[in-house]
Amino acid sequence: QVQLVESGGGVVQPGGSLRLSCAASGFTFSSYGMHWVRQAPGKGLEWVAFIRYDGSNKYYADSVKGRFTISRDNSKNTLYLQMNSLRAEDTAVYYCAKKQWPPAGAFDIWGQGTMVTVSS
Amino acid sequence: DIVMTQSPDSLAVSLGERATINCKSSQSVLYSSNNKNYLAWYQQKPGQPPKLLIYWASTRESGVPDRFSGSGSGTDFTLTISSLQAEDVAVYYCQQYYSTPPGITFGGGTKVEIK
Q1: Which residues pair with B21 in a beta bridge?
Q2: How do residues A42-74 score in pLDDT, each as one tens digit?
Q3: Which residues of chain A make contact with B40, given a CB cutoff of 8 A?
Protein backbone atom coordinates (compact mmCIF):
# COMPACT_ATOMS: atom_id res chain seq x y z
CA GLN A 1 0.00 0.00 0.00
CA VAL A 2 0.98 3.63 -0.29
CA GLN A 3 3.42 4.34 2.52
CA LEU A 4 6.04 6.78 3.76
CA VAL A 5 8.45 5.72 6.49
CA GLU A 6 10.77 8.23 8.14
CA SER A 7 13.98 7.40 9.95
CA GLY A 8 17.09 9.11 11.27
CA GLY A 9 15.72 11.07 14.19
CA GLY A 10 17.40 11.17 17.56
CA VAL A 11 19.03 13.36 20.19
CA VAL A 12 21.69 15.81 19.03
CA GLN A 13 23.53 18.66 20.71
CA PRO A 14 22.98 22.27 19.65
CA GLY A 15 25.09 23.02 16.61
CA GLY A 16 25.07 19.40 15.55
CA SER A 17 23.79 17.71 12.41
CA LEU A 18 21.31 15.01 11.54
CA ARG A 19 20.07 13.45 8.31
CA LEU A 20 16.49 12.29 8.04
CA SER A 21 15.27 9.80 5.45
CA CYS A 22 11.80 9.06 4.13
CA ALA A 23 11.31 5.79 2.25
CA ALA A 24 8.36 5.76 -0.13
CA SER A 25 6.46 2.76 -1.45
CA GLY A 26 3.20 1.96 -3.21
CA PHE A 27 3.28 4.88 -5.64
CA THR A 28 5.49 6.30 -8.38
CA PHE A 29 7.74 8.37 -6.14
CA SER A 30 9.53 10.05 -9.04
CA SER A 31 6.26 11.66 -10.22
CA TYR A 32 5.42 13.63 -7.08
CA GLY A 33 6.68 16.63 -5.22
CA MET A 34 7.50 15.96 -1.58
CA HIS A 35 7.41 18.03 1.60
CA TRP A 36 8.86 17.99 5.09
CA VAL A 37 6.60 19.29 7.86
CA ARG A 38 7.46 19.50 11.55
CA GLN A 39 5.54 19.69 14.80
CA ALA A 40 7.13 20.88 18.01
CA PRO A 41 5.90 19.12 21.18
CA GLY A 42 2.35 20.22 21.93
CA LYS A 43 2.33 22.69 19.03
CA GLY A 44 0.86 22.99 15.56
CA LEU A 45 2.16 22.07 12.13
CA GLU A 46 4.96 24.01 10.46
CA TRP A 47 5.91 23.51 6.82
CA VAL A 48 9.69 23.08 6.46
CA ALA A 49 10.73 22.30 2.90
CA PHE A 50 9.56 21.15 -0.54
CA ILE A 51 11.27 19.51 -3.49
CA ARG A 52 9.82 19.09 -6.97
CA TYR A 53 9.32 15.60 -8.40
CA ASP A 54 12.58 15.76 -10.34
CA GLY A 55 14.60 17.64 -7.73
CA SER A 56 14.89 20.68 -9.98
CA ASN A 57 13.51 23.16 -7.45
CA LYS A 58 13.73 23.30 -3.69
CA TYR A 59 12.08 25.67 -1.23
CA TYR A 60 12.56 26.28 2.48
CA ALA A 61 10.86 27.99 5.37
CA ASP A 62 12.75 31.08 6.53
CA SER A 63 13.32 29.39 9.90
CA VAL A 64 15.52 26.68 8.32
CA LYS A 65 16.91 28.36 5.20
CA GLY A 66 20.67 28.05 4.98
CA ARG A 67 20.77 25.27 7.59
CA PHE A 68 18.58 22.50 6.13
CA THR A 69 18.85 20.86 2.72
CA ILE A 70 16.12 18.77 1.11
CA SER A 71 17.07 16.21 -1.53
CA ARG A 72 15.78 13.04 -3.11
CA ASP A 73 17.03 9.89 -4.82
CA ASN A 74 14.34 8.72 -7.20
CA SER A 75 16.27 5.52 -7.95
CA LYS A 76 15.93 4.62 -4.25
CA ASN A 77 12.43 6.08 -3.73
CA THR A 78 13.83 8.08 -0.85
CA LEU A 79 13.53 11.66 0.36
CA TYR A 80 16.12 13.26 2.63
CA LEU A 81 16.47 16.22 4.96
CA GLN A 82 20.00 17.20 5.95
CA MET A 83 19.84 19.33 9.07
CA ASN A 84 22.90 21.32 10.14
CA SER A 85 23.56 23.92 12.85
CA LEU A 86 20.65 22.54 14.84
CA ARG A 87 19.01 24.67 17.50
CA ALA A 88 16.78 23.89 20.46
CA GLU A 89 13.83 25.32 18.54
CA ASP A 90 14.30 22.63 15.85
CA THR A 91 13.10 20.03 18.37
CA ALA A 92 10.03 18.45 16.79
CA VAL A 93 8.50 15.45 15.12
CA TYR A 94 9.44 15.63 11.44
CA TYR A 95 6.97 14.28 8.90
CA CYS A 96 7.48 13.70 5.22
CA ALA A 97 4.37 14.18 3.11
CA LYS A 98 3.44 13.59 -0.52
CA LYS A 99 1.98 16.39 -2.61
CA GLN A 100 -1.19 15.64 -4.52
CA TRP A 101 -1.10 15.45 -8.30
CA PRO A 102 -1.07 18.96 -9.78
CA PRO A 103 -2.87 21.32 -9.74
CA ALA A 104 -4.09 20.00 -6.40
CA GLY A 105 -1.52 20.81 -3.76
CA ALA A 106 -2.70 19.31 -0.51
CA PHE A 107 -0.63 16.70 1.32
CA ASP A 108 -2.41 13.39 0.80
CA ILE A 109 0.03 10.89 2.31
CA TRP A 110 2.01 11.41 5.53
CA GLY A 111 4.62 9.31 7.24
CA GLN A 112 4.43 8.41 10.91
CA GLY A 113 7.13 10.94 11.77
CA THR A 114 10.57 10.82 13.37
CA MET A 115 11.45 12.73 16.54
CA VAL A 116 14.39 15.11 16.60
CA THR A 117 15.53 16.44 19.96
CA VAL A 118 18.16 19.15 20.14
CA SER A 119 19.51 19.34 23.66
CA SER A 120 22.79 19.51 25.52
CA ASP B 1 2.88 34.88 4.02
CA ILE B 2 -0.84 34.15 4.17
CA VAL B 3 -1.88 33.85 7.81
CA MET B 4 -4.51 31.23 8.63
CA THR B 5 -6.59 31.87 11.75
CA GLN B 6 -8.78 29.11 13.17
CA SER B 7 -11.60 29.45 15.68
CA PRO B 8 -12.36 28.30 18.23
CA ASP B 9 -9.15 26.93 19.71
CA SER B 10 -11.18 24.08 21.19
CA LEU B 11 -14.75 22.91 21.41
CA ALA B 12 -16.67 20.22 23.23
CA VAL B 13 -19.64 18.69 21.46
CA SER B 14 -22.06 15.96 22.52
CA LEU B 15 -22.04 12.69 20.61
CA GLY B 16 -24.32 12.94 17.59
CA GLU B 17 -24.30 16.74 17.61
CA ARG B 18 -22.79 19.10 15.04
CA ALA B 19 -19.27 20.49 15.32
CA THR B 20 -18.27 23.57 13.36
CA ILE B 21 -14.72 24.85 12.92
CA ASN B 22 -13.86 28.13 11.23
CA CYS B 23 -10.77 29.14 9.30
CA LYS B 24 -9.98 32.60 7.99
CA SER B 25 -7.13 33.48 5.65
CA SER B 26 -5.44 36.89 5.61
CA GLN B 27 -5.92 37.05 1.85
CA SER B 28 -8.03 35.21 -0.68
CA VAL B 29 -7.01 31.67 -1.59
CA LEU B 30 -9.43 31.55 -4.51
CA TYR B 31 -7.53 31.14 -7.77
CA SER B 32 -9.52 32.98 -10.41
CA SER B 33 -8.27 31.02 -13.42
CA ASN B 34 -9.84 27.75 -12.25
CA ASN B 35 -12.28 29.08 -9.60
CA LYS B 36 -10.83 26.78 -6.98
CA ASN B 37 -10.07 27.55 -3.35
CA TYR B 38 -6.62 26.27 -2.42
CA LEU B 39 -7.66 25.22 1.06
CA ALA B 40 -7.37 21.85 2.81
CA TRP B 41 -8.46 20.39 6.14
CA TYR B 42 -6.56 17.77 8.12
CA GLN B 43 -7.41 15.64 11.13
CA GLN B 44 -4.74 14.66 13.63
CA LYS B 45 -5.51 12.14 16.33
CA PRO B 46 -3.22 11.82 19.38
CA GLY B 47 0.07 10.16 18.52
CA GLN B 48 -0.74 9.99 14.81
CA PRO B 49 0.26 12.00 11.74
CA PRO B 50 -2.22 14.37 10.14
CA LYS B 51 -4.72 12.88 7.73
CA LEU B 52 -6.13 14.75 4.72
CA LEU B 53 -9.90 15.14 5.00
CA ILE B 54 -10.87 17.87 2.52
CA TYR B 55 -9.14 19.66 -0.35
CA TRP B 56 -10.28 22.35 -2.76
CA ALA B 57 -12.17 23.60 0.35
CA SER B 58 -15.04 21.14 -0.15
CA THR B 59 -13.83 17.95 -1.87
CA ARG B 60 -13.69 14.97 0.48
CA GLU B 61 -10.64 12.77 0.21
CA SER B 62 -11.38 9.17 -0.72
CA GLY B 63 -12.57 7.14 2.26
CA VAL B 64 -13.50 10.12 4.44
CA PRO B 65 -16.97 9.72 5.97
CA ASP B 66 -19.64 11.99 4.56
CA ARG B 67 -20.35 13.49 7.98
CA PHE B 68 -17.29 15.64 7.26
CA SER B 69 -17.95 18.57 4.93
CA GLY B 70 -16.10 21.71 3.95
CA SER B 71 -17.52 24.99 2.74
CA GLY B 72 -16.57 28.59 2.10
CA SER B 73 -14.71 30.62 -0.47
CA GLY B 74 -12.19 33.42 -0.71
CA THR B 75 -11.06 34.05 2.85
CA ASP B 76 -13.65 32.32 5.06
CA PHE B 77 -14.00 28.57 5.40
CA THR B 78 -15.78 26.05 7.60
CA LEU B 79 -15.30 22.40 8.44
CA THR B 80 -18.46 20.75 9.70
CA ILE B 81 -18.83 17.38 11.38
CA SER B 82 -22.56 16.76 11.07
CA SER B 83 -22.90 14.12 13.77
CA LEU B 84 -19.90 13.81 16.05
CA GLN B 85 -18.62 10.30 16.70
CA ALA B 86 -16.20 9.23 19.42
CA GLU B 87 -13.52 8.53 16.82
CA ASP B 88 -13.64 12.15 15.66
CA VAL B 89 -11.86 13.39 18.79
CA ALA B 90 -8.79 15.06 17.29
CA VAL B 91 -7.14 18.33 16.41
CA TYR B 92 -8.21 19.77 13.07
CA TYR B 93 -6.02 22.02 10.95
CA CYS B 94 -6.76 24.13 7.91
CA GLN B 95 -4.01 24.79 5.36
CA GLN B 96 -3.67 27.03 2.36
CA TYR B 97 -1.66 25.89 -0.63
CA TYR B 98 -2.48 28.95 -2.74
CA SER B 99 0.97 30.32 -2.10
CA THR B 100 3.41 27.97 -3.72
CA PRO B 101 6.30 26.93 -1.50
CA PRO B 102 7.76 28.54 0.54
CA GLY B 103 4.41 30.15 1.34
CA ILE B 104 2.38 27.14 2.50
CA THR B 105 0.82 27.81 5.90
CA PHE B 106 -1.36 26.02 8.42
CA GLY B 107 -3.89 27.30 10.90
CA GLY B 108 -3.17 26.92 14.59
CA GLY B 109 -5.51 23.98 15.04
CA THR B 110 -8.85 23.34 16.75
CA LYS B 111 -9.18 20.62 19.36
CA VAL B 112 -12.49 18.74 19.27
CA GLU B 113 -13.59 16.84 22.37
CA ILE B 114 -16.69 15.03 23.58
CA LYS B 115 -18.94 16.94 25.97
Answers
A1: B79
A2: 999 999 999 999 999 999 999 999 999 999 999
A3: 106-107
